[in-house]
Structure to design on (290 residues):
């Protein structure tokens, strides 16, 4: 447990992920062996969960590690978080998810409960080094949460683009655009909905999550309907795809598991690997069979 004096002394400003307009080579050290030996400078946690909110239910709290040299996830870490005005905080273990994610961009996850809105302080313990950060907790969620009815707005398809061009920025285009969400949600089969824009991502994770999802799709054929929805209407403007607005998404990427009855069963945001995606898909199948 950290005392108030120690905790608040460590707590610092929010760290955000850099936009992915930079060269991926920036994430690799120019000094041979630096990544292999874990020798990073200016280490800092970067919270990737974007819709943390007040709730009695535990939420997926996800973050990556960054450094001057680029992404730096890899070493085991613990995390402690404290609400505004709190005097103490306990460290909890995290799970590092790396499957399907680029090197050093693994995501640390702990399931935490947030009972106050405002700016929370956090500290990551990485091999005895205390790394402070801060993050926001909202009074209410913006995106649908587990138990909510999933929006049934249409999504772009080749036959009805809704003014979106292209409907898939992956090259080549993925095959998850044959169904519009309004034709599959709540129609008796679970649905996995991925909101991501490979060509225009702002988090450095939206491209990899689509490529990570696609190899999983065949194993669930006939049991889950898969739909990919882009974020922006075109390659130039910041106009959002109408479906994104209807779902109230504050960020990207997102994966929603929608049960056969049309309710949200699970959600992942910010960054997630194949193991977390597979867990969502397996739960959809189990629920549909029960």
């Amino acid at each position: 447990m950290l005392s108030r004096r120690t905790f608040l002394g460590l707590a610092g400003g929010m760290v955000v992920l850099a936009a992915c307009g930079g060269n991926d080579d920036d994430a690799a050290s120019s000094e041979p062996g630096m990544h292999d030996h874990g020798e990073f400078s200016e280490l800092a946690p970067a919270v990737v969960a974007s819709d943390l909110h007040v709730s009695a239910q535990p939420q997926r709290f996800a973050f990556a590690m960054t450094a001057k040299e680029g992404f730096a996830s890899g070493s085991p870490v613990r995390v402690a978080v404290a609400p505004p005005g709190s005097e103490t905080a306990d460290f909890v273990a995290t799970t590092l998810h790396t499957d399907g994610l680029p090197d050093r961009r693994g995501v640390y996850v702990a399931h935490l409960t947030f009972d106050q809105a405002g700016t929370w302080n956090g500290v990551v313990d990485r091999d005895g080094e205390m790394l402070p950060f801060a993050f926001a907790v909202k009074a209410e969620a913006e995106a649908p949460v587990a138990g909510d009815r999933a929006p049934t707005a249409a999504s772009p398809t080749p036959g009805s683009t809704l003014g979106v061009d292209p409907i898939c920025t992956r090259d080549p285009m993925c095959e998850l655009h044959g169904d519009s969400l309004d034709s599959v949600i709540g129609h008796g089969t679970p649905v996995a909905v991925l909101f991501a824009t490979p060509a225009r991502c702002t988090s450095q994770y939206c491209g990899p999550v689509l490529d990570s999802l696609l190899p999983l799709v065949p194993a669930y054929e006939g049991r889950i309907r898969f739909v990919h929805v882009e974020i922006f209407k075109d390659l130039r403007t910041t106009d959002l795809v109408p479906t994104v607005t209807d779902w109230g998404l504050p960020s990207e990427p997102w994966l929603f598991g929608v049960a056969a009855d049309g309710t949200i069963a699970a959600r992942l945001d910010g960054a997630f690997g194949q193991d977390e995606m597979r867990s969502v898909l397996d739960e959809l199948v189990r629920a549909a069979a029960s």
Observations:
- The longest strand covers residues 55-67.
- The two ends are 42 Å apart (CA to CA).
